Amino acid sequence: MDRFAFMIHPIDSSDIARKFSFLKRLPDSILDKIIYHLPPIKVSEITGIKSVYDNAEIIGNFLGCTLTSKQMVELPTDTVIDKIIRTGKIAEKLGAKILGLGAMTSVVGDAGYTVAQNLNIPVTTGNSYTIATAMEGTEKAAEMLDIDIKGAEVLIIGANGSIGSVCAQMMARKCGYLTLVSRDVKKLERLSAKILRETGLAVKISNRPEKAIKKADIIITVTSSVDCVINPEDLKPGALVCDVARPRDVSKRVAELRDDVLIIEGGLVEVPGNVDFNLNFGYPPKLALACMAETMILALEKNWTSYTLGREITIKQADEIHKLGKKHGFKLAGFRSFEKIVKPEVIERVRYFTKQNTKKQFKVKV
């Protein structure tokens, strides 16, 4: 039976404290030092993944790269990549034929290239399938809220990133009003010029998200920030936000204070088979992030290649992996927001505010 591996890491020190209860009383500064010195670990074995296409089964492992998100950003890049590679060596020893990079391990340095060059198995970041499922989820949620994408104000935050740039190009083919936000304005100018050439859509660009967020009807946010970029006071009533980032870009306070907006987790899919991850990472049974699922799909397809590496991803890649996912029985999971199922009454409530905004916009245009 073919084996794959997927790399995870603690978002912050509290993740380690939850796993090792005796560490809970230690201050974060001490926990961070302990995490830094911990060796990479095999976290769990994944069983029960079975294709609906040919009944092929695969097994896998979650591997832990023992660095927090903050450490991956603040430590020297070489130090971080060295630990990612050492974690990848565990995958080789376990007999994995492909390795997926999760969360911050997929964005450090050159986004997987150096890691792949130092391992004897292919490596993928999972970003192609993340893009495909984020787009599918956003479109379905917009339809449920009666938001017409063509007439909506659409915003991509983190548009210069490997995921954000492709989401921007795909959304430009569907919407009439698009704003791109990222730190590097020159890169945004090149991306907007490309979109104009290929679709004829003139997009707005900015390196300051605050004003753009307040105007947006639909937001796809996918930064690599360790801090929240969307807060309760930022959003207009009736807004839809697809948060693809890990750690999240949307503050938990939004869930507590704003019942008039819809926040959905991007890239969450149902895995075919009687799946057991032997690890609780915050989702119900059988649900996984799309970046994890891409590695599984490639293993079921016996596609032993570094499918998604670096920051240059194409629409073709996203479309292809999306088709392969459907072939093997992977499908978009029901909407979830901050680890909770989005109930029908939530959709109904937000739809009311969406309609109120639509009426106001119509009056202004008239």
The largest sheet is: 6 strands, mixed
Give the low-pLDDT segments: 362-366
The shape, in one word, is: globular
Mean pLDDT: 92
Q: What's the order of the H and E elements?
A: EHHEEHHEHEHEHEHEHEEHEEEEHHEEEH
Order of strands, main sheet, comes to 5-4-1-3-2-13
What's the number of structural domains?
2
Tally of helical runs: 13
Measured between the Cα atoms of the first and last residue, the distance is 64 Å
3D structure, described in words:
This protein folds into two domains: 2-128 and 269-332, no CATH class; 130-267 and 335-365, NAD(P)-binding Rossmann-like Domain (Rossmann fold). The protein has 366 residues and is an alpha/beta fold. The protein is 41% helix and 19% strand. The chain starts with a strand and ends with a helix. The protein has helices at 13-19, 28-37, 69-74, 77-94, 113-117, 127-144, 162-172, 185-199, 209-215, 252-257, 290-300, 315-328, 344-365; strands spanning 2-8, 41-50, 57-64, 99-101, 123-124, 153-157, 177-181, 204-206, 218-221, 240-243, 262-265, 268-270, 273-276, 287-289, 331-332, 336-337, 340-341. A six-stranded mixed beta sheet has the order 5-4-1-3-2-13. Strands 8-7-6-9-10-11 form a six-stranded parallel beta sheet, sandwiched between helices. A three-stranded antiparallel beta sheet has the order 14-12-15.
Keyphrases for this structure?
17 strands; 2 domains; 6-stranded parallel β-sheet; Rossmann fold; alpha/beta; single chain; globular; 366 residues; 13 helices
